[in-house]
Design brief:
Elements lengths: L2 H17 L3 H18 L5 H16 L3 H19 L4 H16 L3 H18 L5 H16 L3 H19 L4 H13 L6 H8 L2 H9 L4 H16 L3 H18 L5 H16 L3 H19 L4 H16 L3 H19 L4 H16 L3 H18 L5 H16 L3 H19 L4 H16 L3 H14 L6
Helix pairs in contact: 1-2, 2-3, 3-4, 4-5, 5-6, 5-7, 6-7, 7-8, 7-9, 8-9, 9-10, 10-12, 11-12, 12-13, 12-14, 13-14, 14-15, 15-16, 16-17, 16-18, 17-18, 18-19, 18-20, 19-20, 20-21, 21-22, 22-23
């Protein structure tokens, strides 16, 4: 058989492995093909470069993002030299390189590169071309990572609509766009919209990819997160446990998808009050993140922040404060002072100060966070409402009951409006407001919110 034809067949076998989610087999076969193509075709032949790009993708799928980035940079340089800046293959590689930057936590570099690619693809391929839509979706994810959530969600909606029109509802790229949009519905008021999308995607994944395919497992993990968002933490924990075992079996314990699920399972344990189990799992995730991604990667910092929250829940407030202090400084440095993740860490550090009795420091930090969240997220965002409520708690601890009462009244009205009168968060705020009225000596006014709380959570008979 002709050597070139034989290499083409082996490349096709590698593609079959990739489609089945067998990324290690894909990597091994592509490395073999690449060496032979270099000998038979030469290093700059289009098919050699295509294999080089595919091998980089397999590295990404295995979580080896640094190796992927280095290989994609080589491919991009050669394609730019041989094909030009505006060739579709060059633009595709440029987009793939941007994805590697994103995976390595270099979100600003990813955004800049994806923006260039998108404009060129619109110009040379058209707005509805699959490659253009792929870049548009990736740029939306980058906006989200940079805290530009409104821009991200708007772009995700455009991508989904166009993919349904161009590719149909069952195409893998359409399903991927559905998942991204569903994940962007983080506000409790949007959880129902997220559930509608999650009711469609998993069955289609199972149907077209199989139950154990990595994309199917990732989708099932996202479904479990949606259960958590709806307060169904037991269901979420059970589903995540199943997904985690399958990912360990089919992907490995150190794969990014496996570590993501492990962290989410820890969150479910935390939501169920099993803080010791959550802390143990989060410790494992953090160590693996440090080993694989380094101490300054956003995913590592996220894992570090979650472990600090476990320490907080377990009453280890000094450890929580120290760890959150480290996370805050790194996030300020890497993301900026106004990024949502930085503000969330600042709020968590303030909680640690409160638990240590350092109420003045807690109040000062919470005041900063509230003002920034109002500016960048809006007054009605769940994170803003949560921080305002926490700030009220600090005022109460400092004996400033009038200011606490005023803030709690604002939070209560917004929660009634956005969540409803019977939502647990609304009832919690009612109870806190009743305490404020009592602290101010307004016992009659305290009775109304207290009665509402007791009506929804009646005391057990003794």
């Amino acid at each position: 058989m002709d050597a070139e034809v034989a290499l083409t067949f082996r490349s096709q076998y590698a593609l079959i492995f990739w489609q089945e989610g067998k990324y290690k087999h894909t990597e091994e076969l592509l490395e073999e093909v690449l060496q032979k193509q270099k000998q038979v075709l030469g290093e700059d032949h289009p098919e050699t470069l295509q294999t080089l790009g595919n091998l980089a993708t397999s590295y990404s799928d295995l979580g080896e993002h640094q190796r992927a980035q280095e290989l994609k940079s080589v491919v991009l340089e050669k394609q730019t030299q041989l094909l030009g800046d505006n060739h579709p293959h060059t633009l595709l590689t440029m987009g793939n390189l941007a994805n590697s930057y994103w995976a390595l936590g270099e979100h600003q570099k990813a955004k800049e590169l994806k923006s260039v690619v998108l404009e060129k693809q619109k110009q040379f391929l058209g707005e509805d071309h699959p490659d253009t839509l792929l870049t548009m979706g990736n740029l939306a994810n980058t906006y989200w990572a940079l805290g530009e959530h409104q821009r991200a969600q708007e772009l995700m909606s455009v991508v989904l609509e166009k993919r349904i029109q161009v590719l149909g509802e069952n195409h893998p790229h359409t399903l991927y766009a559905m998942e991204n949009l569903a994940n962007s519905y983080s506000d409790p008021a949007e959880h129902q919209r997220a559930q509608q999308l999650w009711s469609v995607v998993p069955e289609k994944r199972k149907q077209f990819l199989g139950e154990d395919h990595p994309d199917t497992l990732l989708t099932m993990g996202n479904v479990a997160n949606s259960y958590s968002n709806l307060g169904e933490h037991q269901w979420a924990q059970e589903l995540m446990s199943v997904v985690l075992q399958k990912q360990k079996q089919f992907l490995s314990e150190d794969h990014p998808d496996t570590l993501l699920t492990m962290g989410n399972l820890a969150n479910s344990y935390s939501n169920l009050g099993e803080h010791q189990r959550a802390q143990q799992l989060r410790s494992v995730v953090l160590e693996k993140r440090k080993q694989i991604l380094g101490e300054n990667h956003p995913h590592t910092l996220h894992a570090m922040g979650n472990l600090a929250i476990s320490y907080l829940a377990l009453g280890e407030h000094e450890e929580a404060k120290d760890l959150m202090g480290v996370v805050l400084e790194k996030r300020k440095q890497l993301l900026g002072e106004d990024h949502p993740d930085t503000l969330e860490t600042m709020g968590n550090l303030a909680s640690a100060y409160s638990n240590l009795g350092e109420h003045q420091r807690a109040q000062e930090l919470k005041s900063v966070v509230v003002e920034k969240q109002k500016q960048f997220l809006g007054e009605d965002h769940p994170h803003t409402r949560l921080t305002i409520g926490n700030l009220a708690n600090s005022y109460s601890a400092l004996g400033e009951h009038q200011r606490a009462q005023e803030l709690r009244s604002v939070v209560l009205e917004k929660r009634k409006q956005l969540l409803g009168e019977d939502h647990p968060d609304t009832l919690l705020t009612m109870g806190n407001l009743a305490s404020s009225y009592s602290n101010l000596g307004e016992h009659q006014r305290a009775e109304e919110p207290r009665a509402s709380v007791e009506l929804n959570f009646p005391k057990k008979a003794v």
